[in-house]
Amino acid sequence: MSVLIAGAGGFIGGQFxxxxxxRGIAVRAVDxxxxxxxxxxxxxSENVVCDLKEKESCDRATRxxxxxxxxxxxxxxxxxxxxxxxxxxLSVLINTHLLLASRENxxxxxxxxxxxxxxxxxxxxxxxxxxxxxxxxxPAMAEDGYGWEKLFSERMCRHFHEDFGLxxxxxxxxxxxxxxxxxxGGREKAPAAISRKVALAVMAGKHEIEIWGDGEQTxxxxxxxxxxxGTELLMHSNCDEPLNIGSDEMVSINELVDLxxxxxxxxxxxxxxxxxxxxxxxxxxxxxxxxxxxGWAPSIALADGMEQTYRWVYDQVKARAEGRAFxxxxx
Length: 331
What we know:
Layout: E1 2-6, H1 11-22, E2 26-31, E3 46-49, H2 55-62, E4 67-70, H3 78-83, H4 85-89, H5 92-104, E5 109-115, H6 146-164, E6 167-173, E7 176-177, H7 190-204, E8 208-212, E9 218-220, E10 222-223, H8 224-235, E11 243-245, E12 250-252, H9 253-264, E13 269-273, H10 288-294, H11 302-321
Parallel strand pairs: 1-2, 1-4, 2-3, 4-5, 5-6, 6-11, 7-10, 8-13
Antiparallel strand pairs: 9-12
Helix pairs in contact: 2-5, 5-6, 7-9, 7-11, 9-11
C-alpha cells in the first residue's frame, strides 16, 4: 500500500508520516513549504514540494497511491483565522483538486481533516456549553471563513462518495495539540501559545502572562496520539458520515494556564486582553458516536499531554534564545 499525506510539513501531517513509516508503509509526503521548514521530514518517505491548490500538482501527487489523507489547509489559531478569512476559504481549492485527481487516478480511500469550526455559533454561546454532537452542524452557521470552507468540503466529499463511489471519510478535529507543531508566529493554538508564554516568563524571571479574552472561555484539547489513532480507525472503517475526533475533557483557558503553571512550577500575574480574538464562548466534543462506532474515544488526559507539550515548547524557546535551531524532528 502507498499513501499520500497532503500537508505533510504541518503538525498533524508530519506526525502521521512518522507513524506510517514506523509501520513500514510507503509514504508520499507533500507540502508547499521547503522541506527544511517541515515539522517532521524523513529520508524514508518520498518528499515532494508543490502547491496542492493547483490541479496539476494534485494529479501528480495522487498517481500510484491507494489512500489520500488531506491535512493540507491554510489555517492557525483564532488570531490567524479571524484575520485571514479569504486565505482560509481558498483551501477549498486543495480539497477540490485532490478529490478530482483521486477519482481520476483510482485512489481507493480518501480522508478529509475537517474541524469543530463547522459547528454553528448559536450552539456555542455559553461557557458551560452542551457537548457538540455530529448532527448539530445543521442548520448551518459555521465559523466565518475557515469553518464554512470545512463544511463545504465535507459536502463535496459526501457527494464524491455518492456520485463517483470514492470512499471518503471525514474527521471533525477538536483542537489537536502536542510537540512538533506551531508554537509561535501567529498560527499557534492555545496550548502551544500558553506554553510559550509561560516558558518565556520562566526564563526572563518576569512572572507575568497575557491571556486573550477573560480566560473563562472553554474548550477541549486532544493530544496528537489520540488524533492519529482516531483518524486511522475512521479511515479503515465503514463510517461514511462525519465523525467527531476530539477529547471531551473540557477546561477553561484559565484552567489551562493553571495546568501549565503547575508543570513549570510558577505562579504568574495575569493580564487579560479583552479585545483579542477568542472565538466561540464554549466548545466541547460529544463522543457518543465514536464510542458506539469503535468502542474507543480519545482519552489521553490533558495534564499528561501538556506535560509533553510544555517541555518541548520550552526547549524551542530556549534554543532560540541561545541562537540554536532546534531540529530534533528532522531525520
